[in-house]
Amino acid sequence: MNPKIVIIGGGSGLPVIIKPLVREAVDLSAVVTVADDGGSSGLLRDYINIVPPGDIRNILVAMADVDPEILKLLQYRFHAEDEFFAEHAVGNLIIAAMTEMQGNIFDAVQRLATFLHVCGHVYPVSNEPLVLHAEFKNGSTLAGESEITHAHQTIDHVWVTGDEPGEEPKAAPEVVTAIMNADMVVYGPGSLFTSILPNVVVPEVRQALQQTSAKQVYIANIMTQKGETDAYTDAQHLLALNAHIGAPVVNYVVSNSKKVPDDFVDFQKWNEISKQVKLDESAVKVQGAQQIAGDFLQLRDAGAFHDGQKIADKLMEILGKK
């Protein structure tokens, strides 16, 4: 039986490691945040009150086994001058339509996964849109993923609610089952406070993460993020993750030790990042985790990214499959 891997996150980081993992002999499930409220996803959320589809679209595309031209169509964005359709991705509109046809986002995604011959499972963490809240170190609070990101303040902690004030967020049952049955749970890579943590703070997800017997792995970010993780080491990322889960559950931290060249990154193009994440092996060990450091760096597009194949190989090695 193939090992079961659950990957938790959102944003653009997850597809980097999903693409090579779908080629491995694994049963892969991606748990995706539904707290995004910016860009095309945010507009659709406001217009027709659906779960924001952008992160889900990216994961579906990463796991699909269909003609590449179909994937290009799903990722295509209308031009800025196209008025009503401006900046909308075709895939987002298709997910919105399928949600209306199926009656909920979860069934819509499962149906689309069948059409796209998805190699694994794509699970929105909740069947309803969630609102991300943050309290900053100065004691102020904000609601909304895009508002929190653009505030560029130091975050203390985050939590999620339903769309209605005081509404308790509910996890999709399949998400809880996948975590409980997993051989490995992988966090990230991705924005810690706005892509990864919105999933783990859903109460049923948090409880499952505390109870599962799976090996748990955090893929440490290569660069810090302005307002979210300025000056964070890999150990400080881990500390925030464990704190939001409510227990020191992470067993391994996979950290890039390859130096990013000083003059390579275009900080205007990638304006949300600030500097390379430093490694702190002793502080990782204090939290009961093992740091796995190595060259996991891929330099492209004037930015610093994870080498997805190297990360996938390391995960398989942790599972004892390589």
From TrEMBL:
Keywords: Cytoplasm. The keyword Cytoplasm applies. It is found in: Cytoplasm. It holds the Pfam family CofD. GO terms for cellular component: cytoplasm. One of its GO terms (molecular function) is LPPG:FO 2-phospho-L-lactate transferase activity. GO terms for biological process: regulation of cell shape. Required for morphogenesis under gluconeogenic growth conditions. Belongs to the gluconeogenesis factor family. This is Putative gluconeogenesis factor.
